[in-house]
From TrEMBL:
Gene3D superfamilies to which the protein is assigned, alphabetical: 3.30.1120.10, Alkaline Phosphatase, subunit A
Keyword Magnesium: no
CDD domains given in the database record: PAS_like (cd16025)
Record organism: Oerskovia merdavium
Name of the protein: Arylsulfatase
Keyword Metal-binding annotated: yes
């Protein structure tokens, strides 16, 4: 096997003994600085840049034959290796946890996303000390370590400003962090954090802001900072853009570049892209195309169904095509930002000896439902989308006016030729693109590698290439062995050489699978299906060595092989904390709902039911703020006013759903924005005279609408006088899936109301405190609450 590259010495971090001399007088003593300085990486050690996209099926990108142009990735593929059988966990947080530690996702406590964690070892979303991160090990061995972009591995109980930061990036071994904590964010108005605290975005969309650009700017700053002070020190950076997760936001010129690319529809795309994947050597000759809706009725969620293209009218076809164009523009624009980083590495002479890993965390997302949406919050909140209204927004897709997601048909197309997509343990959910580029360590250029590998293999690959050994104990804690194997042998091997991986299990929301030595077994049991009765599952068997698309079920022909794999799955499940299986149906099944909610983390409320908030403080994440969803509530703001008073007293949410109390143009307004559906509900009254006042809001939930939204009167008070009233409906789930928390004295990002612009800080007076009281009504609509939690992935 060829050398893995310049760094061939295996390194462990050990404390160096003091070699100086200590006497009574310093004049007679000898210092030893080397005993106290951190270790240095081996001479010639490589840098590492890992670029991890979201929600991208293998058939999306140009290096794999797809229509989405990715010039930077194309270049890296031309000069590096493209992998045809690299796999993930089917969901983002679980996959990302494997990139952190090199252990299987259940061992990390990340069976699913942190928002839907439960009190079991494999499901609690807290990475145990026995699974130390690669960043710790590389930093101790002499690398600078950076994390830029998406996190989604901080447990939900630790998102607040006052929470422990031991699971935030800096405590996980990263010297710097800049990005967002949740599973998604608005790319025009992101919810940002830097190091251990939340921050505002540096400038606004009208000044050219987009999250992908900002992240590349920050990445370049971090690398340049290191190189100007420690030019010989290598670095490791994990670059995680918001792309390609919804909302799909992109500059107009990138959207326009894709005009007409998808007019033939998703079924035609599947027929078109498969031969191109075969031609490029990604798939073997004879690979079959699976059905568009491959699972039997009753075995999967109806929201994952695909509408045949021929069944759409012309307006729908135009809308659906435009959604794909926006997605493609988003992807290419982000690739251009990665290209800025790669360009700098070339200009500065670092590209040759930088290991670049360019990949995605799971298959294309089917969370847009069969019709897609201009505001995915409706989908996750269980509120029916208005397709007629959506069609009027076609020209706004990708702009700050929409929070869009394409329909399931494009998820199926971008996962060609496989069955299903994200969340499924079929290939459509777990087979992903991966390119590795390292001129100093990989002689081959432009070749495809067919060895079977998994996201758990990335950590051991980087460590071997860097010449660093993972310790058996870390900070006094015995370490769980790495679950993955190194991919370094594939760097110099023939394209079809045997893989050094033998077994990989899969499990997501109750669907199971296992790959072993070229064979794969998978259950016909869709995720979150509520089927239960796992002992009765029907299993399918595929010889993936020759049937990459899992199109030929061989269970009847090879019953012994199937039983062998089923037994092996259970063995792996017990070793990796996979049990108990959870496919609880969170929508439409109250019993399952109650079971799940009893297991999830509950933010404790004050005994009084009152939450008190103050100005000049950090944004409070929605899941840790007073829960005004599906309940009656009271809000009282203690303020001191002057004739010049104006601005936001409190705001929670965004233009896609939220509420706010604001003073503008001599009027006090309480605004309730129901899922971004116009018009906003407003209750207004003249601003009171100067002095101290209580401005109050009371919503009385009298019942529920046909879609289970809360309905009832909202009353506006100034001191003890009611000054306005209106009947409104309130959101049952959450205002947003991630970010857009509660702020006092300003609006943190995308404005809740069209009454005002970004920020609209309160001036000309003083806010003492704002009190939210939910004690009078303990009712919570748990179904919508959990539906939003489970979909934030």
């Amino acid at each position: 096997m060829p050398s893995p590259g310049p760094a061939t010495t295996r390194r462990r971090h050990t404390k160096k003994p003091f070699s100086g001399e200590i006497n009574l007088d310093v004049r007679d003593s000898t210092p030893d600085w080397e005993a106290f300085l951190p270790p240095k990486a081996p001479a010639g050690a490589p840098n590492v840049l890992v670029v991890l996209y979201d929600d991208t099926g293998m058939a999306s990108w140009s290096p794999y034959g797809g229509r989405i142009s990715m010039p930077t990735m194309d270049r890296l593929a031309r000069d590096g290796l493209t992998y045809s059988q690299w796999h993930t966990t089917a969901l983002c947080s679980p996959t990302r946890s494997t990139f952190l530690t090199g252990r299987n996702h259940h061992l990390n406590g990340f069976a699913t996303i942190s928002e839907s964690s439960t009190g079991f070892p494999g499901y609690n979303s807290h990475i145990p000390p026995s699974n130390a991160t690669m960043a710790h090990v590389l930093r101790d061995a002499g690398w600078s370590t950076f994390w830029v972009g998406k996190n989604h591995n901080v447990p939900i109980d630790e998102w607040t400003a006052g929470a422990s930061k031991k699971n935030w990036p800096l405590a996980q071994g990263y010297d710097r962090f800049y990005g967002f904590i949740g599973g998604e964010t608005n790319n025009w108005y992101p919810s940002l954090a830097e190091d251990n605290h939340y921050i505002d975005q540096p400038y606004l969309p009208e000044d050219g802001y987009h999250l992908s650009k900002d992240l590349a700017d920050q990445a370049l700053k971090m690398i340049r900072d290191v190189k100007q002070t420690e030019p010989d020190k290598p670095w490791y950076m994990w670059f995680c853009p918001g792309a390609n997760h919804a909302p799909h936001h992109a500059p107009q010129e990138y959207i326009d570049k894709c005009k007409g690319k998808f007019d033939d529809g998703y079924e035609a795309y599947r027929e078109w892209v498969l031969p191109r994947m075969i031609e490029r050597g990604i798939l073997p000759e004879g690979t079959a195309l699976t059905e568009l809706n491959p699972m039997p009725d009753g075995t999967f969620s109806p929201t994952d169904e695909v509408r045949p293209w021929a069944s759409l009218n012309d307006e729908e076809k135009h809308m659906f095509s435009r959604m794909a164009e926006v997605f493609a523009g988003f992807s290419e624009y982000t690739d251009a930002q990665v290209g800025r980083v790669v360009g700098y590495l070339e200009e500065s002479g670092q590209l040759e000896n930088t290991i670049i890993v360019y990949c995605a965390d799971n298959g294309a997302s089917g969370e847009g439902s069969p019709n897609g949406s201009v505001n995915e919050g409706k989908i996750f909140g269980g509120y029916p989308d208005d397709e007629a209204q959506n069609l009027t927004m076609v020209d706004k897709l990708g702009t700050p006016d929409t929070y869009n997601h394409y329909p399931t048909g494009w998820a199926a197309a971008f996962s060609t030729p496989y069955k299903m997509f994200k969340r499924y343990t079929y290939q459509g959910g777990v087979a992903d693109p991966l390119v590795i580029h390292w001129p100093a360590g990989i002689a081959a250029k432009g070749e495809v590698r067919h060895q079977y590998h998994h996201s758990t293999d990335i950590v051991p690959t980087i460590l071997e290439a860097c010449g660093v050994e993972f310790p058996s104990t870390y900070n006094g804690v015995e370490q769980t062995p790495l679950s993955g194997v190194s991919m370094v042998p594939s760097f110099g091997a023939a394209p079809d050489a045997p893989t050094n991986k033998q077994t990989q299990y899969y499990e997501m929301f109750g669907q199971r699978g296992i790959w072993h030595e070229g064979w794969k077994a998978v259950t016909v049991h869709g995720p979150v299906s509520g089927k239960g009765h796992f002992d009765d599952d029907v299993w399918e068997l595929y010889h993936t060595e020759v049937d990459r698309s899992e199109s030929q079920d061989l269970a009847a022909q090879h019953p012994e092989k199937l039983e062998e794999l089923k037994a092996l799955w259970l063995e792996e499940a017990k070793k990796n904390d996979v049990l108990p299986l959870n496919d609880l149906q969170i929508i439409g099944n109250p019993k399952d709902f109650e079971t799940f909610v009893a297991m999830e983390f509950h933010q404790p409320a004050p005994p009084s039911g009152r939450f008190v908030y103050y100005p000049g403080t950090s944004e409070v994440p929605e899941r840790s703020a007073a829960n005004t969803h599906g309940v009656s509530y009271k809000i009282a703001a203690e303020v001191e006013l002057t004739p010049d008073s104006q601005g936001v007293i409190f705001a929670h949410g965004s233009r896609f759903g939220g509420h706010a109390l604001v003073i503008k143009d001599g009027q006090v307004h309480y605004v309730y924005n129901f899922l971004g559906i116009p018009p906003e509900d407003r209750v207004s009254a003249p601003v009171p005279t100067s002095g101290k006042h209580i401005i109050g809001v009371e919503f009385i939930k009298e019942g529920m609408g046909e879609n289970r939204e809360g309905v009832g009167p909202v009353k506006l008070y100034i001191d003890d006088q009611q000054v306005g009233e209106k009947r409104i409906r309130t959101i049952l789930g959450h205002f947003s899936l991630c970010g857009e928390g509660l702020t006092i004295g300003r609006d943190s990002a995308d404005p809740v109301s069209s009454l005002y612009g970004y920020g609209f800080d309160f001036t000309g007076g003083e806010i003492a405190q704002v009190v939210f009281d939910i004690a009078d009504d303990a009712y919570l609509d748990l179904e919508a609450h959990l539906a939003a939690a489970m979909s934030r992935d």
